[in-house]
Write a structure and sequence with these properties.
2 domains; alpha/beta; about 350 residues; Sulfite Reductase Hemoprotein, domain 1; 5-stranded mixed β-sheet; TIM Barrel; NO2/SO3_Rdtase_4Fe4S_sf; iron; 8-stranded parallel barrel; 15 strands; iron ion binding
């Protein structure tokens, strides 16, 4: 089990719940838009948000963003050690640096000193595009990635700084899995896991589900980011679904049949609506959306509550038994009532 690290009011490692991360893609200097996006990410289920600080103007804005943020913020720093120290002083709950691009060791030491003084952790690591020169000749790229990340850790340890989170990411799913397994076998620092540069939606979902899911199912990983080229809100939604699917976060799971010529309703549209209707329920609940009553009820019998389409509407069933026939126009209100009844009964 990894050691615990506190990031604001969120604790990762030590068996604590897996924290979901994402990153703003607004201009940090635009305080209003950045705060608005952070709030939206939090509402979607994000626990930690990373914010880029590329210049002093962004650093000044960051102080105001921290005051208005509903979640702990991680300052993303490259090259300029002064920005890292400034972000720490301006309220960052964690800083993400790459000691290799900060420059001289005395600069890294100044960052570590400031982080220790303010009691915040530092995330270090490597990705497939930033492997240190000393490890680029390794035959095994996953080990090279892992050792490059561990070298960053050793730099901080040499400065007697141990409040560390490690990240080792590759655009290759296999390399990401193998690198994180390697790191986990060597140290007990909490790991931030994800597949970097995973691509647009479909590719990103597939890569992240395999890479992150495999590691989490083996007990490796303490905080995750699903990297998607697009809206960061989608990163959070997919991360939540991933955690719910493997039983690491409570919530509603909507199952739906793959459809066939017997289908009496628009399964895809209705399933999406059901997810929207019940997505905020923070309890384990399975809702089935089935296209017909021929075998839909039997296939969905393990669901807590379900819908099966008919020519005039649907039937609502619970634990495999039909409890009500409804017309299409009344489906939403009756389903809400049946879900409410089921949850009350279970409670």
């Amino acid at each position: 089990m990894s050691r615990m690290v506190r990031i604001g009011d969120v604790i990762i490692g030590g068996g604590n719940p897996i924290a979901i991360q994402s990153m703003t893609n607004t201009d940090t200097r635009n305080i209003k838009d950045t705060v608005k996006q952070i709030a939206a990410l939090h509402k979607a289920g994000c626990d930690l948000v990373r914010v880029s600080i590329p210049d002093t103007e962004s650093l000044d804005a960051f102080a105001e963003i921290v005051k208005n943020s509903c979640v702990p913020l991680i300052a993303d720093i490259h090259f300029d050690y002064r920005l890292a120290i400034g972000a720490i002083k301006n309220g960052a709950s964690k800083v993400r640096i790459n000691p290799g691009n900060i420059g001289q060791l005395w600069k890294v030491r100044e960052i570590a000193k400031a982080a220790k003084d303010y009691g915040i952790p530092i995330r270090v690591g490597a990705n497939s595009g930033s492997i240190r020169e000393a490890f680029k000749n390794y035959d095994n790229r996953a080990v090279a990635l892992a050792e490059s990340a561990l070298e960053e850790v050793r730099i901080l340890e040499s400065m007697e700084f141990y409040d560390i989170v490690i990240s080792a990411k590759s655009s290759s799913v296999r390399e990401t899995i193998e690198a994180n397994k390697y790191i986990s076998s060597k140290v007990d620092y909490p790991l931030h896991i994800g597949v970097t540069e995973a691509g647009i939606l479909e590719s990103a979902v597939i890569k992240s589900s395999i890479g992150i899911g495999t590691l989490l199912l083996e007990g490796i990983g303490d905080t995750i980011r699903v990297s998607i080229a697009g809206d960061p809100l989608m990163e959070v939604r997919i991360a939540r679904k991933l955690l719910k699917t493997i039983g690491l976060r409570k919530g509603v799971e909507v199952i739906a049949c793959p459809t066939c010529m017997r289908t009496e309703i628009d399964v895809e549209t209705l399933a999406q609506e059901v997810e929207n209707w019940f997505g905020d329920i923070n309890q384990d609940l399975t809702i089935a959306v089935m296209g017909c009553v021929v075998n839909g009820i039997g296939e969905g019998k393990d669901a807590d509550v379900g819908i099966a389409g008919t020519s005039v509407g649907a039937v609502i069933f619970s634990e495999g038994e039909i409890v009500e026939k409804v017309e299409k126009d009344h489906l939403k209100e009756r389903l809400f009532e049946r879900v409410k009844q089921y949850l009350n009964k279970r409670a």
